[in-house]
């Protein structure tokens, strides 16, 4: 990571652990007390050995407490006393270790919960354009695997770093107080191990970034395959998908194999340096003991403290590797958190939405591509049914995305107003609450049909909500289909339940929109999967039930659009024509051509009869 990235990672980590600093501090204190208790055991062994053999003097504080007389008792009493002392220190060490782990676990889970909450909440506020520019699998991987890496570091390594520093300092102080010469021999190897650990950390950090990117691509491949499983099966692309996954999986595995080679080389070299250090300390200590410079008990204590010193120094490499991996994960999480969310102006307006909708010289293109819309201007009268017809890629759906502010117009790209108010000045929440939309391929959550329809319902009381849900289902002509299921409205749909037909999904989505009771309703080719008869029934229900609502219909089907008060014809992002059905078929143009292609004699006779039965309802 670069210096700025490392600084951002530290700041982000501190931001989330700040609320749990008290618990972290308590866990650190208990961990240090645990370390202190463990450091007493070599001293107990030293004094026991020296007392039994009879070499060396007891510490002054031992004599002050009168414990030196106990150590001069028979061997059995000395060993029992030593065993009792070791048992007490072990119990205290265990108690402190328990509370250290308990408080650290509580603190780390609080911090990570806060991170997850903010991460998920921030994603909800990011613009639609951000979501379309990023692969879902990669986002999921950042929100799960990367967060888990941070959780593991915070819960297992963060406090451990401070404990290791404390352990090294305390152990070195004890060793130097016992014998300076042997201590110098022991610590002379430490700078070599530390330098090598930091060198290793610098080499391995970018490898973790590459591995995380590869894991994100692998997750995206799996997510795409599961989402598009019907397409894979329909076109017999199973083998192709397996090869595609295998390619990504091999790349991911190769990266971790290289990481494994590097980590193996590090640990092997570290083991060699540590073995040389231990051998040197034992050799110098043995010579010192033979020469009478230290007692046998002190020699044994020195060997024990040296092992205690080697463990944290050796663990430094693992901790640095975990820090590198965590730093990469934090930077990937930080990328999401630093993405600019949707923001309303300080004085965002909440005007009435049952007003005329005006598109004024709207020009728009996706990410600096060729404009999808080019100088489009028209007005949708309030309370009327307005239809939009056009070929694939003509910009029909883009118009509605702009109206709903899923995308925003660039400066100089025209403007869209509702009742004369620029939608850029309207609160997004207010706008989307009052402009509802049903897409051609609606998404249903893996919940019950009742929950799916009632998501946008203003009523939170279960009984009142159920009334809204049933009423909306009837208006969408899906109530009979729902009642035919064994569990009715409690039937689970989506990945875990029954698979609805395309037409049923569209009608459930329409019912969901109707519960919102918005003054502006957009049907983006959302009747394409239903038959003509059901299409007519739904439109008739909407006409009768929606009252003064503004209805915008987008469709390729003439029968869906012809009863609209006005019909807009788009061609390659430009307004080709606008008018009523009668006006548009009366002269040569795109609408007349499509009408001639879609309508046979039987269709025209049926439409004539419908028009005679309802001569003025839609005018």
Short description:
65% of the residues lie in helices and 9% in strands. With 619 residues, the chain is an alpha/beta fold.
Description of the molecule:
The strands form two sheets. A six-stranded mixed beta sheet has the order 6-7-8-3-9-10, with helices on both faces. It is elongated, with a radius of gyration of 37 Å. Strand 1 and strand 2 form a beta hairpin. The C terminus is likely disordered. The longest helix has 53 residues. Helix 9 packs antiparallel against helix 12. The protein has 619 residues and is an alpha/beta fold. It has two domains: 335 residues, ABC transporter type 1, transmembrane domain (ABC transporter transmembrane region fold), CATH 1.20.1560; 257 residues, 3-Layer(aba) Sandwich (Rossmann fold).
Helix proportion of residues, in percent?
Answer: 55-70%
Tally of discrete structural domains: 2
CATH topology of the largest domain: ABC transporter transmembrane region fold
| Strand arrangement across the biggest beta sheet | 6-7-8-3-9-10
Count every helix, treating DSSP H or I runs of 4 or more residues as helices. 24
CATH classification, class level of the largest domain: Mainly Alpha
Task: State mean pLDDT (0 to 100 scale).
Answer: 82
How much β-strand is present in the residues? 5-15%
Unreliable residue runs: 615-619
Instruction: Assign an overall shape.
Output: elongated
Number of strands: 10
The largest sheet is:
6 strands, mixed
Tell me the name of the CATH homologous superfamily of the largest domain: ABC transporter type 1, transmembrane domain
Which oligomerization state do the chains in this entry correspond to?
Answer: single chain
Distance between the termini: 65 Å
Second rung of CATH, namely the architecture of the largest domain: Up-down Bundle
Radius of gyration: 37 Å
Derived from helix and strand composition plus strand pairing, the structural class reads: alpha/beta
